[in-house]
Amino acid sequence: MTSAGSKSLMNRPVGQVILRATAFLAAAMLLASCASVTPAPTPPVPPLAGLPRYDIESVDPLELSTEMKQFVAEYVGRPSVGDDRAWRLSWALLDPNVLDFEYDPQVTLTAAEAFRTRRGNCLTFSNMFVAMAREAGLNAWYREVEIEPEWNALDDTLLVSLHVNAATVDRGREYVIDVSRRRAREGERYRKISDREAEAQFYNNLGANALVAQDLPMAYAYFRKAEQTRPGLDYVWSNLGVVYRRNGQTEDAVLAYETALALNERNTVPLNNLYSIYDEDGETEKAAAIQQRVERNRSRNPYYLHYLAESAFAEHALDEAIDYANRAIRIEDREYRFYYTLAQLQYRTGHESRARLNLRKAIRLAPEWVDQGSLVLPGEAPERETEDG
Predict the structure, then answer these.
(1) Which residue among 177, 179, 247, 270 has its CA within the 20 to 30 Å range from the CA of 287?
(2) Backbone angles phi, psi at 131, to 5 degrees
(3) Alpha helices, DSSP H only, in 62-185?
(4) What is the rounded average pLDDT for all residues in the chain?
């Protein structure tokens, strides 16, 4: 989450995207096999030119503290007949009167850091749950949910978030743990990911945070560490491409994006980034060769359409922004941010009754971790819960 999943970043205007894996933790039905993926061969990671080089030390995201072991002993105890350890651990970690863990989609931490601070995204929570479940004698693992990624804007960067959760099995029953309270959708698929890939996603998320902070050397170091930890992850190469492009290493950026596409041709992020490079640098023939694919992907992506709505809103093109917001909602009608943007636009164009209707929809759909008091129309007090019908 994002969260506990992986992250991709994307510059504004659309041109450079980073895939940030494991940003959210989601519950899902057991619908797909858990086959692991064999790492594909990749080229050497090109050096970052003209900037300091940092080496990232290996971290064990699953390392337990003494306090964590004591917590497991107190709330789960030793296995016994009729004792549901998975349920007891899930309850203890999620109940606000016990651990009081605060979901924060922007914070990536190790299991021990998560337990100490009681906060973090879904990868963070997954680290903590998997580590403590294994301490309790359970078989536990990470899962990546195969759904459309979500986009979030931070300054001049778009973060593309995928979803990761944690699972365990106890007495023949599988449990999927949900810290973000995201609702699973019918037909969602998932894949089991290894501890090594989860560790690589940990470094990848920290690299994404560094890139948002404009720290290119540190971002590069974390992405390089992610590739070394678990070679062949397409989103890591896509993120490396963003670093190279921002550092003026266009050839290396193209290599990184092409590598990402070779690893996963369905990843639209590196394709968009390649198109932006060709378009910005006057490579008209290369841009034309992939333009149709890029435009088709963008027209089907509700988060991209919402990004266009926000961009048009910022430029005071309100009618255009309303059109983009409505198109986003027609594709994805359960995203609260789309309704909130539309409500603000309608309010500014004098359609107050429609604006309040869509504001109530936004409040109704907003996840529990969203401060609903922040969902207001300009100059108005927050909607009362009783007015929601």
Answers:
(1) 247
(2) -60, -45
(3) 66-75, 85-94, 111-117, 122-135
(4) 84
For residue 80, give both structure tokens.
Answer: 């016994």
**DSSP β-bridge partners for residue 198:** none
Measured distance between the N- and C-terminal CA atoms of the chain, rounded to whole angstroms:
30
For the ranges 50-54, 55-59, 216-220, 307-311, the lowest mean pLDDT is seen at 307-311
Tens digit of each residue's pLDDT (9 = 90 or more) over 71-86: 999 999 876 656 789 9
Give the integer Cα–Cα distance in Å for 187 and 191. Answer: 13
Would you kindly state where each structural domain of the chain is located, as residue ranges? 5-251, 302-388
Across the range 56-77, mean pLDDT stands at 96
Q: How far apart are CA 47 and CA 220, in angstroms?
A: 9
Q: Which residues does residue 120 pair with via DSSP β-bridges, in sequence order?
A: 103
Helices (H), 145-283: 195-212, 216-229, 234-246, 250-263, 268-280
Tokens of residue 314, six digits: 């910022």
Residue 189's H or E segment, with its range, is strand 189-193
Whole-number pLDDT of residue 187: 67
